[in-house]
Every structure is written in C-alpha cells, then in structure tokens.
Design goal:
Chain lengths: ~800, ~350
C-alpha cells in the first residue's frame, strides 16, 4: 500500500525524519519496502500560459505553442494536442532538470527551435500518464515556480501490509500505528456533516438486504443537485500520489475517503435507478443465473448464483464491493447521487474477484475485512466532502441496516505472560502503556487483565496476539538473545539420508555431477517413454504443459539433460536423487526416494558395463560383497534396449534396474553416442552389512591361467560360478573375451581367466594345484560343454 | 714423507673442487686411489720405513685416504644432484585429469545448514512433497479461501486413483512436516526439515516454481522469542560469518504468534542500500515465530505447558547469496557449465 507522508502529517505530528519513521514502521511490522519522492522538488519548473498554437510546418504530428512565462514568451514544439489557448501548463525551460533526471535544453525539432518543454503527468513525477500535457489549475500565476504555487511535493512510502492487518490499509490506520509507536495523539477530527433538507431519505430511497449474512451492514446517503466536474487539486493530488486516476469529483471523493479511512464506497447516479412509487430501490441480493452486467471497465460479465450484486428494481447495478456497473455510473450529467458504504462478506468478494479476475482497491479491502464501526463514519465524511466540493444538497438521514450484533472480544491476559514468551522482563506499566496507545481497553482484575481491543483490531483474539503487540512496539531487537538449553540426545542421521550421503559422495569421486530437475514433465514425455497417463498424478493448474504430470521416474528429464549438454561435452556423467510419485491404493501417492544415473559417451561403446561397475562400486562401498549383487536380465521398459537391460538386485531383492537407451529413443532425443541409465529405489535398502575383518593369508597364492571355449549363450556368471566353487580357488579374474568364427567355430566364444589357488594353512604344491585345476576343467566340460582352448 | 702425504691431500682437495662430472671423478679416483694412484703408491712405501715411524705415518696415510673417500662421496652426491637440477622440466603442464564430479550447489549448501543444526542437537526429518490441504494449510491455521493463502500460490494435484478429487497439493512450504513429525514425537523436540517445495508462480531470475526450504521446530517448556533470536543468529553467523548484522522484524505468518522475519545486513552494500537488497540495506533471510497456540493444539500439545518456535528459510535464496549466483533458474537448468563450478 502507498502512504503519503504529507497526508499522514494531517493526522498526526510525529517528530521523526522520513528515514526514522520508515525504520520505526518497519521494525514494528509495517515494512517500508520503498521510499520515493513524488512531484517536483525544485523551482526550475514554471507555470506557463499558452497564448498561441500553430501547426508545425513540417509535421502533422507536431504543433508549436507560444507560452507566456511571466513577462517572457517562449516557443515550444510539442507532440500533444490536448492543450488549448489560455491553458496553464508546466514548462521546463532550458537548463532545468526533470524529476526523472532528464536535463532540458533548447532543441531543433524539424527546423524549429524549441525553447523548453511542456510536461505531461509522468514528466512531472506525479503519475504515469503520458498521453497529453498536464493541464494546471487556471488560477495559477504564469511565471511562478510551480511548486511554490501548487502543493505538488510529497514523499511516498510503499508499505507491505500483512493480510492480518486490514486496519492499516488507510492513512488513518498508519496514523494509529504511528500514534502507538510515538505515544502522540491523533489530531485530525472528521468534520461533522449537516443534513440539508427536511425531507427524509426514506422518501427517496428504499434498501432491501436480501442476504444479510453476505452484507452485515449497509448504509447509504442521498445527495441531490451535485455539480459533477474535475476535482480540486488537493483531491487530485492525493489520488495521483497514491496511484489512483482522478475521474470526477464524486468518484474521486469515494476513492479519497477509501484511501484516508479504509472504507470502500460507491456512488450511483440516482436517476438511472429504476424506481418504485417514485422511490429508488436498492436490493442487495444474489445474482440470478445468466444475469448480466457491464462493469465500469467496459466488460460484460455473465453472473451466476454465487455472485453478490447491488441491484435496482430490475437489474444489477454493481458487483457488490468489487466494481460498479456502467448503467449507473456517475457522469458529467449526473445530478443526484446515492452514496453507498457497506460491509460485504470477505469470502464472497474474494470469489467474485477471482472468478472475474478483477483487481480492485475496494475488493482488496473488503476481502481483508472492514472495521464494523467504520461504514457510517466514512459515509458521512464522504457526504460532507461532496457537499463541500460538488455543492450537493444532502437529504436528511441515512439508510442504516446492521445485521450483526458484534460482541467485543475480551482477552484474559496475565501481563507476566509477555515476559514469559518474549524471554525478557517487560514491566507492567510499559505493557499498560503500549496497550492503551493501541486503543485497547484494560479492566484489571487482580493478576489478570481483561483486554478489549478496538473494533478495527479483529486480529487480536488471544493472549499471544497481545504479546506480539507488546513485542513489536518494544522492538524485538532489544531482547537479549538467550541460548537454547536442553538434555543432549544422540540423534543418528536417518538411514536413508546416511545412504544418500555416502552414495552421493561416492558418485562425485567417480566423476558424476549432480543435477536437480523439476518434479513434473509433459504429456508428450509420458507418451515418448511409453508410460501410462493413468499412472500419473496430475497438476490441475499447471503453469505450462511441460509441468503437468508428476514424475514417476527421474529418467526422462535426465535424458533431456544429456540432450541439452551433449553438444558441448563428449562424455557426460550425471545423477539425480529425488522423490517420484506413484499410484497407491489410497488417494495419496507413494513418494519413494530414487537415485538415477546416466552415462553418455560419444565414443565409448561399453557404457552398460561402466554403469554396472559404478553400481557395484557404490554398493561395495556400502559394505556389500560381490556375492550380494546380481543382475536379472529382463525387458523392463520399452525405452530401454531389450538386450542390454536388467534388474539390479541386492541379496535377491530388486532395488532398481540398469540398461541402455534404445535406438529409437536415442533418435527422438538426438543422442549421438551411447547412453546407459540406472534407477534405484533407495528406500528399498534398509540395512547394509557391517564389515568384518578376514585374516590376511600367510601363504602366497599360485597363479594359473585358463582359456575356455564355450557356446555364446553360456554367461560369464555361469562359468565363474563353477570356477569359484572350489574352496582352494581364492580369486578368479577374467582377462580376455574373444569371438571369431574362423578361429573358434560357429556360435563360440573364448574366455580367459587368471585363477588364484590358495590354502590358508600351507603353500600349495604343483601337484595339488593340478588336481584342482583338472577337476574344474572336467566340471566345466560336463556342465557347460566347455573345452580348453588349444594354443 | 709426511710432507708428501700432506701435499697429495692438498692437491687432491684442489683438484676435486674443479671436478663437475662423473667421468672426471673416475679419473680422479684412479689418479689418487687407484692401484697405481698417488696415495696408494705412498701407502705401499710405508712398509719400507723404519719401524718406529710406521704407525704414525700409517695412521696419517689411512686418515687421508678416508678423508678423500669421504670427499669423493660428497662429490658424487653433488654431481648426482646437479644432474637432476639440470633437467629441464615444465611443472606448469596440466596435471592428469582425475575424474571429478560436482555436487549440486543446493546440496552443498543444505549440507552446511544441516551440519550447523545437527551440531546444536537438531534432528533431520523429511516429509512428502504431495500433501493434503489439511496438512499444508488447515492444520497450520490457514483456513480455506483466506487471503493469507494468496501468499502461497498453490499447485493442486489430481490423483489418478480417486474420482472424488481429494484436496491434494504440491506442498507450498515444508511446514506441514512439523505436524507430521509431531504425530510421532513429544517435547522436548528440535527438528529441521529440509525439502523441495512448489509455488504456482511465473519464473524469472528470482522466482521458481520449484525450490528448497529448510524448516525448523523447537518445542519445550519455557521456549521464548529470545531463544528463537539466539538460535537463528547463531545459525546465520555460522554460515555467513561472525561480522554480519542481524535485524528482527515483525511479520505475519498464520501458524506463528508472534511472527517475525530475520533480516541480515546486505553483504554487498554493508547496509547502505543497493540493487541486491532493493535499497533496504537488509535481506530477508528467515521467517519465524513462536508456534501459534492453535497449531500446538493441532499437534496435541498443551500450549499452557509448552511453547515453541518455528522457522523457515529459502535454501535457494540463501545459497545464491552464499555463492553469488544471480539467477535462481540456473539451479534447475542442468547446465554443466554451471554445475561444474561447484
């Protein structure tokens, strides 16, 4: 919210510099996000009077104005056409500097020397409009320094008002805060309204509130004979400074009072309402299905039963609290005005605003809640101002409908509770002073004080709320920090986190880089990978189509990462850990924590074995042995190469899979080279073995090589299982795999191993080794039809 | 004879000084100590001397021989060293490329955060990323359709298995884990909850749909705002250094009362105001406050007996500040040119 300091000063005298005020406000919870200067703060901008306008000889888009500035006359070229002779305008003469820092000099514009510049609203630093020259009030003396004759200088604070503090959405609200902070009293009194006629408002207007629970309060005034025109500068200035566009005096007053007191108001052109027996009728009701209204922003809105409207006898004339209708809009022809000041249900206002995507200052305030005692005060103040500047005659009395018996909240408060929660000794008389400055009523009953907050502080409900008030006024920064105390506990890291930590560190040492991807992907991704739509949790309101489906696997985005990086890198090793979202028997997803790896190489072919080696390394580092790890070759996903994919098992439990991306998907993702992937469910690992020391062998091993020829279908694992089956074989190392039809025969391959023979008790003799070796060869021949390869 | 030995010794010493390579040294050895060498020659002559002179001259000759041997050894070392010294070797060539992966900066930063809190006896707890509205909002004192919910722009999630769309959301903060954690714990409690959260807002250099938070919760008897300030000050100093300036600013969060933000003096402008801190001189680091009595009740904890504080921080923002990263989107870009820097 924007705050005008000059306006604030009408309400309260505080002896603080702008900077000090900003700091006090910020440290008491009303954060000042920006401080900006508004308007003109130098004497270089003068008042000029246009005495002649002629077309530019070379351009139809320009004209030449002769401007009288005091006794001097200047020739100025301008591109705006909203001025006429005798208009007073702001002129920046050569050498002057505009509020935005632009320096003005004489300029030749298509052959004509322009001796200065006439200023638009934005160039004066008072608004954003650049559509034409800003026309000044005609009474200003030409030649005078603009800021000396017009109040056009202010400091504006941009405030962050939290949703609980709707009472701060006005000048009055901030004045109350400043009063609480400085113990200074609020000085401005709202002037008392005098009604004019003897005829009662009831003879002019009848209000029916059909839905009192959606409109707990409705008040209205009837003003006749207004003169609708442009507002006086003192009104316009306030609106401009706080970012609102002046419209006409009636509308401006409603906005003015809203900014000053916080109560949104609406003015209707009374003559445009349908009357019943010469009485104007206003109904506060729900809209009928398909009822229509064109709102002030010229948009046709189709309504339904969830909308709250203000209607006349026949049709809606406003979306209650959100925006007025075009049909009863105040125009220059308006003579009689109905002024409305009400309270509407915040939730309803919120829904309407959201439904029709309307941003309005009025709805913003209704949504956050209005002081229940405010509508009639604001109504009378606005009526007073209309009477004053639009010469209206105020019909006697006001419509006043109130449907809520407000029980003031009483909080039972033990003042020592403040010290107890804040952790400092706060004196009782200080607490009393703070609460009184906040306009709380205090009734003391022994140790317990009964606190009644003012009507505008509906956020104060429980003792903790009062502690916050005391704390924020006291300033938390004055509290002495106190260390936490407790009985220490042994707190182990969660098992899953231990594994993740170890695996992550290990992967980094193995050359893998960690990536973070989004948790969602597109429908296109779902189908590219052959996943089922129906296996996915889905975002109902995605920001874009790429973020619609919650991931069931980390792989798809990991592959996109490879595509993205492969033009720059020949070899990419990446991994990600994170949750995926899987269907469950209940509506709530299973959200296991997964690890996914990808290894891409432009040249290397054996990427499968690389990833396999990495997995083995990871789990051996966690304490598992070779015997614990196994692969189960299966077709797993359609996006994988069917021959080169397998489940990864630890102690016969599937914890994930590894495989190479198939050729079709490689093409889709423009991957030139080899890509192997793996994905593991880390939550399936619930324990890892404790390492046990094994005696270092005292006797040296005997090394023998063995070269076998087998059918191609025989796996390395089958051969190895036989080789390691003998207790004296301590280690088996494959050192060569060879396939050549001409040498070995059809469908044959040769594998060569180093065999280590070792006995923990003694050094083995040649004969002993021969015996075991021959035994193994025999077994291989029998079981796998393997034979020794002839040299 | 004595004189002769001394002269040989002198001559040998002088000659040895001139020698600079192995070849010359060999020649020198032959000249003095070889079978026909000068000193050897003298030594042989000793046996021809009168008996009474033999012992003293013998000793002298042997000492001289030992002395020369010693000098030769030194010379040999010198020559060997000199040879290495003369080698032309470019140490500036690149070291071997040892494979090196990189941890994500957010992981690195989170590890730091966790380390600080674990050192203060906090437990690390996690929770689901798809949440129910009940945990994400209702139990945290954020009623449905309340303007307070505007602060948390929310992604809503539809389950494939249920037709009556239960109110699932992508959690907008890690705060729901407070409630889940307290279903299994009783005070005293100190936990932190790191994790991924989501906001339905357009992305730019400082906004992401996806980011990380770390939530904290302390519940015990007699927990105060002064405890809260101490804890968070200690944390920020541990991460950003002892000399930082810290400010506590009241703020509103529905699940705490009183609520406050912890600001840190801008590291770039030292509090003067710059574009990084929006001319404020301070950067918002953490949201915090005493746990709202209603939220304590929702945790089945008696607010009359216990009090507590909670806090939350945006890991991305803090990590960006820590590492000087200027665009939050880089974290989720998978760009190796970015990741390889960590």
């Amino acid at each position: 919210m924007l705050l005008s300091l000059s306006w604030l000063k009408e309400w309260i005298n505080y002896n603080l510099s702008d900077k000090e005020l900003a700091e006090r406000l910020t440290l008491s919870g009303t954060e000042v996000e920006k401080i900006k200067k508004w308007g003109i703060n130098s004497d270089q901008i003068k008042v000029g009077e246009i005495i002649k306008l002629t077309p530019h000889p070379k351009s139809q888009k320009l004209q030449i104005a002769k401007v009288k500035v005091g006794s001097l006359v200047f020739k100025v070229v301008l591109g705006a056409f909203n001025v006429k002779v005798k208009d007073k305008v702001a002129i920046a003469l050569p050498g002057s500097i505009l509020p935005n820092g632009v320096k003005i000099s004489s300029k030749n514009i298509l052959g004509i020397t322009s001796e200065g510049m006439l200023l638009a609203e934005d160039e004066l630093g008072i608004g954003e409009d650049h559509s034409g020259i800003f026309i000044l009030p005609s009474k200003l003396p030409s030649g005078a320094s603009l800021r000396k004759v017009l109040d056009i200088e202010d400091t504006i604070f941009d405030l962050d008002i939290t949703p609980n503090r709707s009472d701060c959405l006005s000048i009055l609200g901030i004045a109350r805060e400043v009063s609480a902070l400085t113990s200074k009293k609020i000085k401005k009194k709202i002037p008392v309204l005098k009604d004019h006629n003897d005829k009662e408002i009831n003879q002019y207007l009848k209000v029916e509130v059909n839905v009192p629970y959606l409109c707990p309060k409705y008040t209205a005034r009837y003003i006749t004979g207004v003169k609708v025109e442009s507002s006086p500068w003192w009104v316009k200035k306030r609106l401009l400074a706080l970012g609102l566009r002046p419209v006409n005096n009636i509308v401006d007053i409603t906005n003015y009072v809203m900014l000053e007191l916080g109560q949104p108001l609406h003015a209707f052109d009374a003559d445009k309402l349908k009357s019943d027996n010469k009485k104007k009728i206003i109904k506060v009701r729900k809209a009928y299905a398909k009822e229509k209204i064109t709102t002030l922003d010229d948009k046709l809105r189709i309504l339904d039963n969830s909308c709250l409207v203000i209607a006349d006898l026949n049709q809606p004339i406003a979306l209650a609290g959100v925006m007025g209708g075009k049909n009863t809009q105040i125009t220059s022809k308006t003579k009689n005005v109905i002024l409305e000041s009400a309270i509407f249900d915040p939730l309803t206002i919120r829904r309407i605003r959201q439904k029709y995507r309307i941003v309005s200052e009025s709805a913003y305030r209704f949504e956050r809640g209005i002081d229940f005692d405010l509508p009639e005060k604001a109504l009378d103040y606005a009526t007073f101002l209309i009477q004053k500047i639009a010469q209206g005659r105020v019909i006697k009395g006001r419509i006043y409908k109130s449907y809520q018996k407000r029980k003031p909240i009483k909080i039972q408060f033990n003042p020592s509770f403040a010290s107890q929660l804040l952790g400092a000794n706060i004196k009782k008389n200080y607490i009393e002073k703070v609460l009184k400055n906040l306009n709380c009523q205090i009734t003391k009953k022994k140790n317990i004080w009964e606190i009644t907050p003012p009507s505008y502080r509906s956020d104060l409900k429980i003792p903790s709320d009062l502690v916050e008030e005391i704390g924020r006024i006291y300033d938390y920064n004055r509290l002495k920090p106190q260390p936490l105390r407790c009985d220490l506990k042994y707190i182990p890291l969660d098992f899953k986190d231990q594994i993740i930590q170890k695996i992550k560190n290990n992967l980094i040492y193995l050359g893998f880089t960690e990536v973070y991807n989004y948790s969602f992907y597109s429908k296109e991704t779902v189908s590219k990978f052959g996943f089922k739509i129906n296996d996915h949790f889905r975002i109902i309101n995605p920001l874009n189509p790429n973020q619609e489906f919650l991931r069931i696997s980390l792989i798809p985005l990991l592959i996109q990462n490879i595509t993205k990086n492969s033009p720059l890198f020949d070899r990419i090793l990446i991994f990600e850990t994170g949750r995926v979202f899987l269907r469950n028997s209940s509506f709530f997803p299973k959200q296991p924590f997964k690890l996914a790896l990808a290894f891409y190489s432009r040249q290397e072919k054996n990427v499968f074995y690389f990833i396999k080696g990495v997995l083995e390394n990871l789990f051996k580092n966690l304490g598992f042995s070779d015997d614990d790890l196994d692969l189960d070759k299966k077709r797993i996903f359609s996006f994988l190469n069917p021959a080169r994919s397998a489940y990864f098992e630890i102690k016969n439990k599937k914890i994930g899979w590894l495989g190479e991306l198939n050729e079709a998907l490689k093409q889709v993702f423009k991957i030139k080279g080899s890509l192997a992937l793996a994905e593991l469910d880390l939550e399936k690992i619930t324990t890892f073995p404790q390492r046990q020391f094994k005696e270092i062998p005292l006797y040296p091993p005997v090394l023998r090589d063995i070269s076998l020829v087998v059918n191609k279908e025989i796996t390395y694992k089958e051969i190895k299982r036989i080789l390691t089956s003998h207790p004296l074989v301590s280690k088996v190392e494959l050192f060569d795999v060879f396939e050549n039809e001409r040498v070995l025969g059809k469908n044959k391959k040769s594998l060569a191993f180093h065999l280590y023979f070792q006995d923990p008790q003694k050094t083995l003799t040649k004969e002993e080794v021969d015996k075991v070796f021959n035994h193994l060869v025999e077994k291989l021949q029998k079981k796998l039809k393997a034979f020794l390869r002839q040299k | 004879m004595e004189e002769e030995i001394r002269l040989i010794k002198k001559e040998a010493k002088e000659k040895l000084q001139q020698i600079s390579d192995q070849k010359e040294l060999l020649k020198f050895k032959i000249e003095f100590l070889g079978r026909k060498g000068k000193l050897t020659h003298l030594l042989r002559k000793i046996k021809d001397l009168p008996k009474e002179k033999r012992p003293s001259l013998g000793r002298l000759a042997n000492q001289t021989k030992e002395y020369l041997d010693h000098l030769i050894k030194l010379k040999e070392k010198e020559i060997r060293f000199k040879k290495q010294e003369e080698e032309i070797f470019d140490v500036t060539l690149d070291g071997y490329k040892i494979p090196q992966g990189h941890k994500h900066p957010l992981s690195l930063f989170l590890e730091k955060v966790i380390e600080v809190f674990r050192s203060m006896n906090f437990e690390v707890v996690e929770g689901p990323e798809v949440e129910t509205e009940k945990y994400n909002f209702d139990l945290l004192n954020i009623p449905p359709e309340h303007p307070a919910r505007d602060v948390w722009d929310t992604f809503y999630v539809k389950s494939p298995s249920s037709k009556s769309s239960f109110h699932l959301v992508l959690r907008t903060h890690t705060s729901p884990v407070q409630l889940r954690a307290m279903e299994k714990r009783r005070p005293p409690v100190r936990i932190i909850v790191p994790g991924r959260v989501f906001r339905h807002e357009a992305t730019d250099a400082s906004h992401e749909t996806t980011f990380y938070q770390c939530e904290g919760l302390v519940i015990d008897k007699g927990i105060t705002v002064a405890n809260l300030i101490w804890t968070l000050k200690t944390f920020l100093k541990a991460i950003f250094g002892e000399n930082i300036k810290i400010r506590v600013r009241p703020h509103f969060y529905p699940f705490v009362e009183p609520g406050m933000d912890i600001d840190m003096g801008c590291l770039l402008c030292k509090g003067k105001g710059c574009s990084a801190c929006g001319q404020k001189g301070y950067l918002e680091m953490l949201g915090s406050g005493l746990v709202h009595p209603q939220v304590l009740k929702n945790m089945n904890i008696d607010p009359k007996k216990y009090s507590g504080f909670a806090f939350g921080m945006g890991i991305d923002r803090l990590a960006m500040l820590y590492y000087g990263i200027n665009d939050i989107r880089l974290s989720y870009s998978s760009d190796l040119r970015f990741l390889n820097q960590f």
